[in-house]
Amino acid sequence: MPSAKILSEKQAYVADLKAKFDNAVSGCVVAYGGINVENDTKLRKELREAGVEYMVVKNTMLRLAVKGTSVEGLTENFTGDTAVAFAHAEDPMAAARILCKYQDGDKSKKFVVKGGFLEGKVLSAAETNAIAKLPGREGMLSMFAGALTSTLSGLAVAMQAFVDKQEEPAA
After folding, report:
1. Does the record bear Ribosomal protein in its keywords (predicted)?
2. Closest by Cα among 32, 28, 30 to 20
3. Shortest CA distance to 100 belongs to which of 159, 29, 9, 23?
């Protein structure tokens, strides 16, 4: 039986993890096996720069943290070596995008995205990989601006053609 001090520390840690799950817009659960120290350092740096919290956590602590929450379905992913990444409102897809990109480039095929969550809904590994392929906020805005510009320029050409036709002399 653990001492009261250790037990209270673990309870505080689980409460902190639960708060991270509650405050995150999205996140990913990964099996981080096969990653060497150099690549792990690069991955963590890239995640940090994108505003993503990434940590290796004991599966028992994760199970306790998600118990009774909307993402309790993630429990089935908490086996083996597990790391969790939490993304926030600035770029909700950052965690999935970075971790799935690393997974695709991993030659050992031991670094695997097990699943994820988005706005309180649990996602499978396939759904997480699909979301990772979506463009970021800036990409979406530029696509919208491009579509809007092409629509407006098409409208202007059509209006000019109509005006030109009205000005033609009747033959």
Report:
1. yes
2. 28
3. 29
